[in-house]
Amino acid sequence: MPELPEVEVVRRGLVSWVRGRTITAVEVVDPRSVRRHALGPEDFAGNLEGARVLDVVRRGKFLWLPLTDSPADASAADPSCDADATPAPAVALMAHLGMSGQLLMQDSSVPDEKHLKVRLRLSTADGMPAELRFVDQRIFGGLFLTALIPTADGGPGGLAETPLPLIAEEAAHIARDPLDPCFSFDEFYRRLRTRRTGLKRALLDQGLVSGIGNIYADEALWQARLHFARPTDTLRRAEAARVLDAAREVMTDALAAGGTSFDSLYVNVNGASGYFDRSLNAYGREGQECRRCAAASLVSLIKRDQFMNRSSYSCPVCQPRPRNGRW
DNA sequence: CGGTCCACCTGTCGGC
DNA sequence: TGCCGACAGGTGGACC
């Protein structure tokens, strides 16, 4: 379910349950979910046991838990965007949810989920569930240990409560997301103009701007009235700002909607609830009336195209692809 | 080097 | 009923 808002909902939910607790036992139920840990499941488990969780940090759709011995203890870290810190090496438990991953806080008495892949037992804490479970149907996501390294752009940001001057090695290539206070539109636009590709492809490129997936890309394009195949090197500054603002708006709304489902014991990553069904204007609406055109007394139906081997939804009237090749 | 394609997985749904 | 293909919110590495 996870694009930026869903991952951020998970991060926010997780932090109050796991920060400061120690991982006492690790059970890798399906080794495929830790395949990105090159040294194998035993090494993964052995190195986690006894580690204390210091925080939950996000960059784009990547989520990680800095562990004991990380200089992250300096929680009064300056949230500046400058990179001038020289922190010591440290490790983190990295999580990516892929297409279907969930991180759930559960009591030990709760029966194993059908697709339970990894179980982390945590030190006892008053009123808190004993287990952090990684559940994943399609196994595109996973857990692994990674080094925390100094970063060129001032740390994870991404709405983390304590931005660290370190970033997980495996997320170092990920750009900041549009909701990140340190996100630079100027840099985004400069890099966008040098690309020779289609706009949606660029929006989905996590190295250019992070957090946007197939749903929010289509929604942002619809709201900005731009076509998914629009060549990036023809985009005017105002158009780029429009689509970025749209992405920011739709993801902010989704975040607000998702936050309410997260006040219980578990991280409910059921992104299909509430928001999506009601608020989407393009994604998944093939054959239905474009709401904007309908409001203008026009009739047009949302169409679906194959783009990048996945579906793209758009309105042929208000997001036109010009025939003469001029944008 | 940047852009594009495809493998990686399980499950569900609609058509025949 | 069952088989089969299409499709599903992502990513990295192989390939040009």
What does this structure look like?
- The protein has 327 residues and is α+β, with helices and mostly antiparallel strands.
- The protein folds into 2 domains: 4-171, N-terminal domain of MutM-like DNA repair proteins (Alpha-Beta Barrel); 185-314, Orthogonal Bundle (Helicase, Ruva Protein, domain 3), CATH 1.10.8.
- Helices cover 26% and strands 19% of the residues.
- It is built from 8 helices and 11 strands.
- It has helices at residues 4-18, 40-48, 185-194, 199-204, 214-224, 237-259, 275-279, 291-295; strands at 23-28, 57-59, 62-66, 90-96, 101-106, 116-122, 131-136, 142-150, 166-168, 303-307, 310-314.
- A 5-stranded antiparallel sheet has the order 2-3-4-8-9. Strands 1-6-7-5 form a 4-stranded antiparallel sheet. A two-stranded antiparallel sheet has the order 10-11.
- α1 (4-18) crosses α6 and α5 (214-224) packs across α6.
- The longest helix is centred in the C-terminal third of the chain and has 23 residues, at 237-259.
- The model is unreliable at 70-79, 259-267 and 269-274 (pLDDT under 50).
- It binds a DNA duplex (16 and 16 nucleotides) through α5.
- GO terms for molecular function: class I DNA-(apurinic or apyrimidinic site) endonuclease activity; oxidized purine nucleobase lesion DNA N-glycosylase activity.
- DNA binds at residues 115, 138, 195.
